[in-house]
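Bumping my old thread because nobody answered last time. Still need a sequence for this structure:
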């Protein structure tokens, strides 16, 4: 009679435990990357900054009427004249309607 050697192998419980641990590690990594990606999107203001630069260009070339109120890709853009410390400024302010981010640019007022 042939004597069978015992093969060392993992039991079903050990295999399931290892699989569960791997799934937990990957899910933690996935949620972390998701949070980083979403926070990067929320803080991205490059589109509205570009639009504000376009408004500044139009203002300097006298193609923009003030007071200004408009909407641009979920941003509420306003432009008003303000006076501070004896100087007159054009303040262009954009507020994101969902995330409430604020982008502000001040330009010295051009007299017509």
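Sorry it took so long. Here it is:
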């Amino acid at each position: 009679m042939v004597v069978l050697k015992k093969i060392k192998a993992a039991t079903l419980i050990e295999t399931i435990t290892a699989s569960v641990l791997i799934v937990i590690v990957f899910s933690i990594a996935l949620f972390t990357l998701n949070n980083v990606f979403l926070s990067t999107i929320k803080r991205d203001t490059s589109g509205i900054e570009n639009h504000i630069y376009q408004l500044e260009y139009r203002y300097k070339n006298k193609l923009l009427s003030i007071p200004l109120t408009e909407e641009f890709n979920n941003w509420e853009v306003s432009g008003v004249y303000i006076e501070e410390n004896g100087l007159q400024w054009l303040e262009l302010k954009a507020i994101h309607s969902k995330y409430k981010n604020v982008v502000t640019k001040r330009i010295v007022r051009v007299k017509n």
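The chain has a mean pLDDT of 87. Let me know if any region looks off to you.
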